[in-house]
Request: fold
Amino acid sequence: MPHHTPVARRHGDRKAAVGDVGRPPVAWAVPGILFFAVFAIVPLAIAVYLSFCTWDGLGSPAPTGLDNWSRLFRDSEFGQAAWLSLVLTTISWVFQTPVALLLGVWAAGRQRSRAFLSAIFFIPLLLSTTAIAMLFHALLDPNFGVIRTIGPWLGIDPAVMGSSTGALLVVAFVGGWQFMPFHTLIYQGGARQIPEVLYQAASIDGAGTVRQFFHITLPQLRHTMTTSSVLMIVGSLTYFDTVLIMTKGGPGTDTTILPYLMYRTGFQTYDLGYAAAIATALVVVATGISLLMVRLSGFGSMRSTREGM
Amino acid sequence: MVMAGVLAGCGSGGGGSDSGTITAYVYGDDAVKVQQAAVDTFNKTSKVKVKLVSVPGTDYVNKLRSAMGSPSAPDVFFNWGGGSIKPYVDSEDLVDLTSTIKNDATLKDGFLPSIMTAGGLEGKVYGVPMRGMQPVMLFYNKTLFAEHDIEPPRTWEDLQTAITTFKAAGITPFALGGSDKWPELMWMEYLLDRIGGPEVFRKIQDGDTQGWGDPAVLETARTVKELIDDGAFGKNFNSVDYGNGGAPTLLNKGKAAMHLMGSWEYSTQLGKAPEFAKKDLGWTAFPTVAGGVGDPANVVGNPTNYWSVNARTKHKETAVAFLRTMASQTYAQALVDNGDVPTTSGAASMLSGSPNPQFATDQYEMVRKAPSFTLSWDQALEAQYATPLLTEISKLFAGKTTPEQFVEAMKAAK
Reply:
């Protein structure tokens, strides 16, 4: 009996330790919180305040109550932009996730060629979005771009940028081209964290590569996938530069996604109050989606995939 | 105004304030060297010095906007006249120069009349011309016209013939940089001017959004739709741009026969395809439109740029004195040397020294003889109307809306 007590105590200690050990106290977060407050919370608060005002950038904002917000819900242009943002985000996620996941898992192997190729994959991420958008704009020029030559082979109309769906797909593709390497890196890191022993054990049990992938790799990468997806979705929702440079929201308004609508309203129309309402709505939606994903995936409970190792 | 006068009076009474500096904001591009030279010359004899601040082009409008709302606002600033200064006029930030100019022979007689009025608002003048003129002209490929044995179009029937001929030969009749949107605007501007006369847009510019309901606007939009359906701009124009050289290249490679564009097309072509610009590039006025009431000599485009004076300036007299130098022979000559066509009344005789005297003279004569010069709509209207306008025009050209829907959308814009 007496020798049981230390065990019980140890157990109790461990419970307390989960909350304390290795997790720094609040004071450590002060610099970060301050920084965040000055550069994120305060501007956000100002934007929210502006969304209840009318302001053309000259003089002072004049409060107009809920005008901008009621306009937002009646504005068909806002509705269309929100829909386009949603479509773009979905296409981006569906297109980027499998590719990045497979490439990342493949690149997690330790052969030299893989390290070298991973470095090459990384290049698009090092280029500025502006440079990438201009590059693709030139490649996709219907009269003088490469698309004129290779488009027909691939079954793509050279005037792809001039059609509604074409332009949106191009924007999604260019974004994917740029950010997939980043997500590949995340998956590569995640895959390398998976203990070798799991695979060794599975081999002994007679599981092939495919089964190992579906039964070890995928479940172990669950949190990695959440991280990557949240980044991807929030990234697509706030996607802007490519649209500005490649399509200017056109043809017509077929690529006028929310951030571009906000830019146009704020910095071309100088309707800064309404633009602030659009921006605030965007923040609310993006935050909502992130929270939802974290909740649904169980990421919030912060359980380690390596527990029990 | 009275306040500003009193302040200025107090300042000079207090002594020492007759020296100082005024700040002038200018759109930062290649032409700034002409303004810099003018400032240097002016500063040699003036006690109050002018300080020129060159703001990079793409940032100009936003930078000016935030500066005008701050204590460090410029005393004098570059603008496009019309809608680009409307917010500042509304907030009483600008000096009304109407009477100053009327009582000053140098300023009154120094510039072409259509240019002076084009940048104003509701009959008042807020700016003095300070750069070259940029009328929109119909450019064409001389070789293609010679090969197919047709003349540059003067009437709408000529234009139809040209479209049919070039289409049959597999050549796009008109290059159009539709992805940039503003090149599409030029078609609307000229067509409305030819169909309904300049008064239709004048009314809209002066604040009557119901003016979009004028039958001439609908007729214009329908004509545009006919041109598109007829294949006048080819099939790809929605994904062709001007900025990166798409449309100009179509013209100089012989893939398109004509291009409706601002007079800067000449220097664009000179930069991209010098041989073509010198030998094969032709230009003419926009054709007449059957049944239209507008004078075929009317011109649209950017008359020029203007200097306006901030009402809060402490040195209004210096500012006006500086603006007066814009009418000088020396300044006009500097513009000519830079390849621009000045808007000063005596510029005709200088144009022989221009890089292309023929082009410069034709352009000058076109504007000098124009009964009316309509400022580009996106500059003439305030941003709150100009941005939706560009969007609606893009939708019309992309076939997303009908001419009727275009009219309704513009009437509803606010």
Notes: DSSP finds 21 helices and eleven strands in chain B. The longest helix of chain B spans residues 182-196. The first strand of chain B starts at residue 20 and ends at 28. Chain B has a mean pLDDT of 90.
